[in-house]
Amino acid sequence: MQRRAFVRAIASTALVAAAGCNREGHRKRLIAIIVPSEDNPFFKAEGDAAAAQAVALGYRVRVDAHNDDAYRQDNLVDVAIASNAAALILDNSGSDASVSAVRRAAKAGIACFLIDRAIAATGYAKAQIIADNHQGARLVAAEFARSIGSSGEYAELLGRESDTNAQIRTNGFHAVLDKIPGLKLVESQSANWSQSEAFQKTETILQAHPDIAGIIAGNDTMALGAAAAVKGVGRRTIRITGFDGSPDAIDAIRRGELDATVLQPAFLIATMAIDQADYFLKTRITNKPELQLIPCDLVTKANADCFANFKESKCNAPLAGDKENQAP
User: Fold this and answer.
1) Does residue 24 surpass a pLDDT of 70?
2) Is residue 308 domain-shared with residue 179, that is, in the same domain?
3) What is the distance between the alpha carbons of residues 27 and 21, in angstroms, rounded to a whole number?
4) Is the pLDDT of residue 159 over 70?
5) Residues 89 and 170 in one domain
6) The predicted structure's pLDDT at residue 324
7) Mean pLDDT, rounded, of the chain
8) Residue pLDDT, tens place only, 277-319
């Protein structure tokens, strides 16, 4: 009952908005874009990039956020179905929890293109375009090890346990770090992707392990929280790395507060999804595999000016993805 009421309310709002558009605009096909959050810089960047590319190609767009709530995601997918969306661009709320929503949209004739996070099923989405989190995690772990001299104690801040990417990243970190005999993991805690929670967890870790040499974080938000806690106690020699390539993290790298991050190319992935959706809607084929892994780039102080707003910009500095800097 609540879901039907939600869908009717959102669909009615969409119809009212459409009625206010001119006839030409209303004839444009709709692409629904659903992201986890419009407050988080990464998710906002991918939503904005997808919307801009879709509008440039002549589509109407609607951008919504599910807030990592599978129930809300289900409702938003039902709204897309009720609105006769031609395509759905979805950064989903969970690998297992999202399968039924994607299957339902596909059954309704909506071409589904998943970004950032894969689901635990194939054959329903036309494409699943995601950053290669394992490759990116290995890249930043290798840089983390170099920054602390390949010896000493370190701590790890993990993302939300229900998020598949959190597990993939920690596996990638340890594929590199566990092979280095001089490194010792003394603390591993989830900070749920949260800056404030990472700040609190890092304060506790520093009290329990005053001699740690570094902190490796599963995303930039947690890395920034850790950096603030480290700065608060004057431990400027502790090396900290993140993951995502957010503008705030890159600024912190320039200031020397973080040592490295890896850029998830949110802008590229989002525009690829729109381009592939457009091609499919015009040809009914994709000419692409369903699962597409997009490599990440290491960002350090040496090449920080090569990246902005979750995309690579032109510069003359060598990119960390070059052969000599590849993780093992």
Assistant:
1) no
2) yes
3) 10
4) yes
5) no
6) 36
7) 90
8) 999 999 999 999 999 999 999 999 999 999 988 998 767 555 4
Report the distance separating Cα 248 and Cα 115, nearest Å: 22
Judgement on whether residues 205 and 234 belong to the same structural domain of the protein? yes
- Rounded CA-CA distance 83/19 in Å is 13
Nearest partner of 128 among 157, 155, 95, 104, judged by Cα: 95
The 10 Å CB-count burial string (b at 16+, else e) for 98-133 is bbebbbbbbebebbbbbbbbbbeeeebbbbbbbbbb
Beta strand ranges found along the chain (DSSP E): 30-35, 60-65, 87-90, 111-115, 127-131, 152-158, 183-190, 214-217, 239-241, 261-263, 291-294, 297-299, 307-308, 311-312
Paired tokens of 175: 């594929």
CATH number at residue 13: 3.40.50.2300
Give pLDDT, residue 16. Answer: 45
Asked if 43 contacts 35 with a C-beta cutoff of 8 angstroms, the reply is yes
Place of tokens 């996070």: 117
